[in-house]
User: Fold this.
Amino acid sequence: MVIYLAMAARSDNVIAFPLHRRRELQGCPHCGRRDDVWQIGRLLWAYCEVHEVRWVVADDAGVTRATINRNELKKGLEFLSTFAEVTR
Ligand SMILES: [Zn+2]
Assistant:
């Protein structure tokens, strides 16, 4: 799952992720809940534990390699990999 830092961050565009290509999700499509968020690279993922789904809520172009905690990233990836992505 390579979803971060594939391209250089554009400082003039906070939302570099193609947000127009995804559905806007404020909460779980099944129950509307949002348990918490995980920062994975520059993407902020929200998830619903009950329905095991996750979706992107933000793309933080300000996150660089230097600000990424590798242990946190690994933990986040392992955690989120158990959820189905519903962003697209
Ligand atoms: Zn749910």
Notes: The chain is about 10% helix and 25% strand. Residues 28, 30-31, 33, 48, 50-51 surround zinc ion (CB under 6 Å). Confidence is low (pLDDT under 50) at residues 4-15.
